[in-house]
Amino acid sequence: MEKTVLIPTDFSIASLNIVKNYLNEQPAHVRLNIILLHGLHQTDSITGLLFYSKSRLLQDLVSKEFNEGCDVLKNKYASKIRSMRKDVFSGFTQAAFNQYVEANRVDEACVPILYNPKFKNNSSFDLMPYVKASNLHIESTGSGIDVPMPERGKVAELFFNRVPVS
Amino acid sequence: MKMKIQIKTTLILLTAFLSIIILFSGFVYLSVSNYSYEDFYKLLEIRAVTAAKVELDKEGSSKELIALRNEFFEKLPQEKDHYFRIDPGYSFKKESEELGLPLSFFNEVIQDGKSEYNKNSMFYKGIRYKSKQGEYVVIASAQNYFELHHSAYLRRTLFFAIIAAFLFSALIALYFSRYVFRPLHKITNRVKEIGSENLHLRLDNNMNNDELNDLTRTFNNMLDRIETSFETQNNFISNASHELRTPLTAIIGEADVSLSKIRTIDEYIETIKVILDEAETLDRKTKALLFLAQTGFNGKNQRFDQLRIDQLLWDVKETIEKINTDSRIHIDMSLLPENPVKLKVKGNEQLLHLALSNIISNACKYSNNKIVHVSIGASDQNVFVIVKDHGIGIPDNELKYIYDPFFRASNTLKYEGYGIGLPLTRNIIRLHNGEILVSSIVGQGTTVQINLPVGQTD
User: Fold this and answer.
1) Å from A91 to nearest chain B CA?
2) Could you state, in order of their start, the residue ranges of all structural domains in chain B?
3) Residues of chain B contacting residue A166, judged by C-beta atoms under 8 Å apart
4) Which of A148, B57, B68, B292 gets the highest tally of CB atoms within 10 A of its CB?
5) CA nearest neighbour of A32 among A65, A69, A58, A6
């Protein structure tokens, strides 16, 4: 069975934990296309459009740690993940979002229970209202409490979520 | 030839200024004199026409014309008018000799209707005029006033202007090069002052955000690093001697006391035990120091093999549990990659074993044997080993000193140790081109992340 899942992200390691949890909950035979979607209002100036490059944009937004974290997940769930890509959504309306969902054949969305995204970029915006208002099937995952961790922002953060403290 | 950049800049600027000025004044001189020639010929033409009208035609209105001519026409220097009647077949050979004009001048007048000629600042303008009596060649001649006075004046003015501009631009160029290179001189002088005995001195940072400020900042950063390593070096020696002296003092003291009088056998045994203990500590310390020194150099005599990190971790866990039976180590394999090849690392097993057991045993020690989580994961470039404890943590402001030999954080007083483990570990990880990241919250715990590059699969 193949599925495309959309996961809103702020390109922090914490948001990768959602991906990890989601992957954990999936049955073994599922093959997943994962879209890590980031909301970003983009410039509409002529020079900005002239020199527009999505890969450069993503390069600026995404940290090295995040990419490494993605690789770790891809290696761990090599048989479950068919593809994993990062994308930017720049629409303003619900219709635009629905369009995006349809165009990318998204089957479901996965959102964290506790969600307080921290954006590096000023023009980033929260995708959650769009996800909630669309008619996508929504999975919720992650823990409801935020514990301070020394390893925040490092790849290490990916390894210790939901570790039972005994 | 070696020339100072400052002088070079001055000269370049000066040449640029000078060439512009000379070009400019040459252009002005040429265009002005050209214009004055044309203007003067026009003037002569008007004179010739009026003269012809007055002298040859003698019309009814010529009285007013004469009055007008006398009143408004300023007499030009050596102004003269000549009239020659044109008869068919007549050549102006005699007239041309008389006036000192070439014959072609007359021919041109007859053919084209007008001609111009100048010789020794005398200007001639000839026109062909058709009067009632017949056709005439009318020649007006005069000395060009401009050529005599104005042009010399213009030349003089331009010459002085060039000299003035040269002096002025020389001043500007000099000042400019001084201005540009002054901060560089300052930096050079300041850097000269800094030696090993006053490494705390820094370059002054002016607040503009220019290139020189960048240079200053880079210099200062470099000085920071140098100073730190200097201090580390100094601390290392004093710390090392102190660390080595402590057990020696204990041994000497113990031996001294027991030798002061005859004692029982039990007491001797006790004393020798203490001495042995301290000697062993000393041995451990020197061994650790030796290791630190060895790993500090580039690994020449270390063999690097392909080895699997997960295997190594199990070995390390076993070793630590043998030494410290209370330790609780949980190896978390939840992010282990499906492809085991990605866990292979090129490295020296003994050294990596030492490094990892150092980190993990530290985690156990400083968390009073609370559970320690060890995780493994791999991206395409790195293998990650992450050790997380729930121990006492490291104070924020001491985090940057943890790799200094013999440094121990302020909250570790009740734990045994002498602060060689972590620098040693870092040396080993560096030897493997890896990275070690330590993050900590006091009272919550410490997380150590070790990134080791994946070994080439060949």
Assistant:
1) 33
2) 5-152, 215-296, 305-453
3) 371
4) B292
5) A6
